Write a sequence for this structure.
């Protein structure tokens, strides 16, 4: 039995004040890697940021800073949560004020903040999507949408697509289209089928009398930023309407302005029956998810409104953050900005593709949801690591290991995009095929070393990773990269 001890390490993580002496924070942050390895997951021993002592310190706008003062241009956007930028002042201000009034709701009185957000979303969303259910994540939004589709239709089959990513709870995972996530947890829910994304004939052939719904991402995000051919979404809408089945659009990643319209389905004037939102809805400040549908569909939730419910879903803090986020997205015209900046980004990346055809395989995307596909997964990884060393964050996609995503805050400027592309170009100019070949076995050797250390009962941070405390330099980085990272230090 755990015994409460006064001297136990139970103090909360210290609050940071930029002006204050940061020694206490540094001391605690120095333990971050060991704590991560020993109390979150051993796999942190393989994480690049751990090896580089890149412990998160603060963030603002399009930048994240680590404890050593290094600044990172955020072209990853927290996997798509920072559409309005990091800590947008209007969202922060709204949440701070909300903290002084009501944080979590009583569950009994009318919650005006969730009702207000629902009315805002009804105005914003396409077509007749009028009602919202609020939850805490994208996975939950998908889970709820699947349940609503089954309840409304009285049928159980759901058609999804190969390589889709819809989340990891048992229902959402059943819709997710990649074996590496699915297989270890089978059997999943009955009645899920996966067809090739973009293939309307395959979709038509998969429909049966028992089909309740089709679930799709308008652009597959984790699948590798796969943009379907123009007209696909419209054809899916027509087909599902003709066959009397529901269309669920998962706009968890594509929604809230990311692709150049508020919702990606607007590019094709498609109105889904159910839409799923999350990620950027909370303004990068609070977690919130939602699924929405028309009044006609919502009717099935009327006899027992708590048939699907969530204690934290719709809480005032999250709803206020989302309301302020919608205001910012509209007032600052961020969807349109994403379209303009996305065009510039893609044009510059396509120039790089033309210059380095042996390295870059494809550039694809819409707005500021961009996938850069390399010729090999090793090359993608090597370039990503080097970008990190030079102060630019990007990330791989879950279901496509040759592709990294570029998903910056929509407030990114042309000069910041130019900095990213120039940095990328300088890396590509330096990388040779030989570099890539030597890098790959070296990584394998490091992994084997960590495994041996683990077998001996040592923490890998004691054996091979850069000491976090007081670490001042980036290990294993070229002199040129070092110069660059100094340049971007604040
Ligand atoms: C399209 C899509 N749906 C659902 C999810 C799951 O969202 P969450 O991680 O918030 O549960 C994701 C996450 O990446 C996503 O991209």
């Amino acid at each position: 039995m755990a015994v409460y001890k006064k001297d136990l390490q139970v103090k909360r993580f210290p609050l940071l004040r930029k002006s204050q002496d940061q020694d206490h924070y540094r001391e605690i942050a120095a333990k971050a890697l060991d704590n991560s390895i020993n109390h979150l997951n051993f796999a942190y021993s393989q994480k690049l940021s751990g090896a580089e002592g890149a412990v998160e310190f603060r963030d603002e706008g399009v930048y994240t800073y680590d404890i050593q003062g290094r600044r990172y241009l955020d072209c990853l956007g927290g996997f798509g949560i920072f559409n309005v930028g990091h800590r947008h002042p209007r969202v922060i201000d709204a949440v701070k004020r909300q903290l002084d009034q009501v944080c979590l709701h009583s569950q009994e009185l009318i919650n005006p903040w969730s009702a207000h957000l629902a009315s805002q979303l009804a105005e914003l969303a396409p077509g007749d999507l009028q009602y919202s259910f609020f939850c805490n994540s994208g996975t939950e939004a998908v889970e709820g949408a699947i349940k609503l589709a089954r309840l409304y239709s009285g049928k159980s089959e759901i058609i999804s697509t190969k390589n889709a990513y819809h989340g990891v709870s048992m229902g959402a995972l059943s819709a997710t289209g990649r074996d590496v996530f699915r297989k270890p947890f089978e059997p999943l829910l009955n009645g899920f089928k996966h067809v090739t994304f973009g293939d309307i004939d395959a979709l038509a052939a998969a429909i049966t009398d028992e089909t309740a719904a089709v679930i799709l991402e308008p652009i597959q995000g984790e699948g590798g930023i796969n943009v379907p051919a123009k007209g696909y979404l419209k054809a899916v809408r027509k087909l599902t309407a003709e066959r009397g089945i529901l269309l669920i659009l998962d706009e968890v990643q594509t929604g809230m302005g990311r692709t150049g319209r508020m919702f990606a389905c607007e590019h094709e004037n498609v109105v889904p029956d159910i839409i799923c939102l999350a990620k950027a809805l909370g303004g990068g400040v609070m977690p919130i998810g939602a699924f929405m549908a028309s009044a006609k569909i919502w009717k099935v939730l009327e006899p027992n409104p708590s048939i699907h419910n969530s204690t934290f879903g719709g809480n005032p803090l999250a709803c206020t953050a989302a309301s302020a986020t919608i205001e910012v997205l509209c007032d600052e015209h961020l969807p349109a900005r994403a379209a303009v900046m996305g065009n510039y980004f893609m044009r510059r990346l396509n120039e790089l593709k033309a210059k380095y055809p042996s390295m870059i395989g494809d550039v694809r995307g819409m707005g500021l949801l961009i996938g850069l596909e390399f010729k090999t997964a090793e090359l993608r990884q090597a370039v990503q690591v080097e970008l990190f060393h030079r102060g630019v964050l990007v990330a791989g996609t879950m279901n496509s290991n040759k592709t990294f995503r570029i998903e910056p805050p929509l407030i990114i400027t042309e000069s910041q995009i130019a900095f990213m592309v120039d940095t990328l170009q300088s890396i590509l100019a330096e990388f040779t095929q030989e570099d890539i070949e030597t890098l790959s076995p070296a990584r394998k050797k490091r992994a084997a070393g960590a495994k041996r250390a683990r077998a001996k009962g040592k923490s890998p941070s004691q054996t091979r990773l850069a000491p976090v405390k007081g670490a001042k330099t980036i290990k294993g980085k070229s002199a040129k990269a070092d110069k660059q990272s100094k340049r971007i230090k604040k």
Notes: Residues 433-455 form the longest helix (23 residues). Confidence is low (pLDDT under 50) at residues 458-490. The two ends are 48 Å apart (CA to CA). The pocket of pyridoxal-5'-phosphate is lined by residues 79, 137-139, 142, 165-167, 217, 221-222, 250, 252-253, 278 (CB under 6 Å).
